[in-house]
Amino acid sequence: MPKLTFFSSKHFLVLSLALNVSLILRLIVHEGEEPHNHSCFGPQTTGASIARTNSNMLISSSSSSNSTTCTTGSGSRVINLDHGDPRVYERFWRQSGEKSTIIIPGWQSMSYFSDVTNICWFLEAEFAREVVRLHTVVGNAVTEGRHIVVGTGSSQLFLAALYALSPTDAPEPISVVCATPYYSSYPSMTNHLKSGLYQWGGDAESFEKEGPYIELVTSPNNPDGHARISKVNRSQGFLVHDLAYYWPQYTPISAPADHDLTLFTVSKSTGHAGMRIGWALVKDKEVAKKMTKFIELNTIGVSKDSQLRAAKVLRAVSDSWEQGNPQEGESFFKFSHKLMANRWKQLRLVVEHSDLFSLPKFSPAFCTFFKEVLEPQPAFVWLKCEGNVEDCESFLRAHNILTRSGKHFGVSPKYVRISMLDTDENFSHFLERLSSIKS
Amino acid sequence: MPKLTFFSSKHFLVLSLALNVSLILRLIVHEGEEPHNHSCFGPQTTGASIARTNSNMLISSSSSSNSTTCTTGSGSRVINLDHGDPRVYERFWRQSGEKSTIIIPGWQSMSYFSDVTNICWFLEAEFAREVVRLHTVVGNAVTEGRHIVVGTGSSQLFLAALYALSPTDAPEPISVVCATPYYSSYPSMTNHLKSGLYQWGGDAESFEKEGPYIELVTSPNNPDGHARISKVNRSQGFLVHDLAYYWPQYTPISAPADHDLTLFTVSKSTGHAGMRIGWALVKDKEVAKKMTKFIELNTIGVSKDSQLRAAKVLRAVSDSWEQGNPQEGESFFKFSHKLMANRWKQLRLVVEHSDLFSLPKFSPAFCTFFKEVLEPQPAFVWLKCEGNVEDCESFLRAHNILTRSGKHFGVSPKYVRISMLDTDENFSHFLERLSSIKS
């Protein structure tokens, strides 16, 4: 056990205490309340493997409301951190009580239309107001002079952006590129309909084709958490900035993002993935119109219920920061930052004392939101298997840890992406399992 | 004024009384409560015309929460019945009170996943249960042996069906056909991404290409309200049945629909267009899987908030029929059937006494739901301009009535589609305006 010899007894104590505190907290706060949190994996494992066969994208959950059998031995329990389901924030929202509860009577929001005077005619004014307010509070994006387009998650807005930016009369599809490692779903989302408008062009670094192109700039990047800027940098490029993770809990806010087309989503900002609400800030009016047109042809608008609920949740986030009354509870960003900081600290403890794994290195930077120098603490770990392990995903899978292989992100299978946003319970089990793996 | 001479004083009295009753009712029930119901058309007209330039599909509303100027002269008021916004049911849902109100706390439904053991892993179990129950109550569709796939409206499910039914390795895109007059959005929804998987093939009646094809069977049909069966009827056809209007308020229910792939939506059944919730009943497991995969790639699932709200609303509809307690209020289908019957009666009164217009003829049939012989009363009027008027849309537009031309439905511009689902107020104004048009 060469790795374990590096653990001092102090390290063990810290890790063990952290695990216990988080498990006890979990028992106090959640026990018996959470329908989706069993330690049962009989049916899920089946469900998970079926889903994974169909897709490299999302797939399978570490929880289910339908499970009937359980595996109790901690080593045989499957820890699924393949997807980025943001369960980590549930505790905050439980504590927030009525401030984030929405009531919708049966007669409300029945029409297709929200405001026909707006380019995005299905955009709820209340949601738009809270988007602007939150960006002002956080300082992570310029909203002046931007059109807001709401989408069924930022996925739909990504497709809407491709549709809007593709030339309609080009002899061949426009290339869509992104520097590796890129979000594993970009290629299949771009290519699944074999569109004649756009097609996946691969790694932006090696892209050399002449003419127009669309470059995706994900910053901080999914999967590796690094801040990014455009790589291709030629005159005929359209840039789509996917800033899903540009929030204070994940990365120091350096300045308000000021791009042509920027995507955000509640899934990663507040943790409400089930709402399926994202938004785009769009400089060009014609692009905003075409994106709106795509959403009209795709889904005739976006759920009003979720827009109204998202408005309430974003308002609660802004209020929790601006009012800053400790009796009213912690601010969302303080809660989530502390939580991510704690998880990363625990993870580093485990990884630093292993010669099997390594983590990306990040430079601390001044965060204009927290007004402190802080380190990035991404929503995913981009873990590298060191030494002879060539297929990190298979290696971890043999230890019942499900992750996503680097090959889906356009790079070596020595890397895997691991979610840092799962429940406290799963995260604790993950750390425990990881620290027990011997070379 | 040749038309007007056909009106007997009795007819005028009936029409006038009907208009007054509906206007008075409207004032009692709605006044001051409805944010989206102004008689103001300054800004909207602009919004409407911009939106219509972009699309032949939806666009523009007869209402807005943002209007500041009003046109009071009844003749100059623009009556927009171009789209099928189902505002007509709002009154029922106001009366239903808490039975249809949903409360969602901030911590609920945060995960991407609903049930990973289900093929459609983002389908809320509660919604699926209410779908099955409602079809059992109404008797309009077989649910046994079917997979339910939920979608962001039935539009998304239509696209999911195209994706699922298209061969992946075909040398050319599969043809998508529908008999004329067909829903005006089918061609643009099919072709907007220039997919290499499928392409619009036009009128099913004249389709003669060899090999596989997808035929859309909309029954009752949008725009003309007629019951339909497949037209092409060859061995290599995949059928998609769009049964958005197969509900008792629109047409006599003859038998439970028993097809391979059937689409429904809350927009037209209960009037909740803003929810963007539809569902597909799918016989083949692999088709259900591929449709689910499409929705994953398109929007990573469907709003849980709207699924939960839809479950509540569908339950209220089933309860209102099964409990049948008059003190608890009328059943939804009795309310909506009576309302549509009343509108069609008034419309027939106006049109029958005009030599400018004509309506489709429908045969009464036994309705297994109401257990009576009843006549269809479609959600749209498929109006024909008789005589010399070749462009019915322009003719009505000159009288400030906005409709959708037959040319968008693959037929002659002598026809227009007019919504029968708008507010009582707009419908009354429409009848008044229509009866005042002279040849």
TrEMBL record, chains A, B:
<dbReference type="InterPro" id="IPR015421">
    <property type="entry name" value="PyrdxlP-dep_Trfase_major"/>
</dbReference>
<keyword id="KW-0808">Transferase</keyword>
<keyword id="KW-0032">Aminotransferase</keyword>
<feature type="signal peptide">
    <location>
        <begin position="1"/>
        <end position="18"/>
    </location>
</feature>
<dbReference type="InterPro" id="IPR015422">
    <property type="entry name" value="PyrdxlP-dep_Trfase_small"/>
</dbReference>
<feature type="domain" description="Alliinase C-terminal">
    <location>
        <begin position="79"/>
        <end position="437"/>
    </location>
</feature>
<comment type="subunit">
    <text>Homodimer.</text>
</comment>
<dbReference type="InterPro" id="IPR015424">
    <property type="entry name" value="PyrdxlP-dep_Trfase"/>
</dbReference>
<keyword id="KW-0732">Signal</keyword>
<dbReference type="GO" id="GO:0016846">
    <property type="term" value="F:carbon-sulfur lyase activity"/>
</dbReference>
<dbReference type="InterPro" id="IPR006948">
    <property type="entry name" value="Alliinase_C"/>
</dbReference>
<keyword id="KW-0663">Pyridoxal phosphate</keyword>
<dbReference type="InterPro" id="IPR050478">
    <property type="entry name" value="Ethylene_sulfur-biosynth"/>
</dbReference>
<dbReference type="GO" id="GO:0006520">
    <property type="term" value="P:amino acid metabolic process"/>
</dbReference>
<dbReference type="GO" id="GO:0008483">
    <property type="term" value="F:transaminase activity"/>
</dbReference>
<comment type="similarity">
    <text>Belongs to the alliinase family.</text>
</comment>
<dbReference type="Pfam" id="PF04864">
    <property type="entry name" value="Alliinase_C"/>
</dbReference>
<protein>
    <submittedName>
        <fullName>U3 small nucleolar RNA-associated protein 4</fullName>
    </submittedName>
</protein>
<dbReference type="InterPro" id="IPR037029">
    <property type="entry name" value="Alliinase_N_sf"/>
</dbReference>
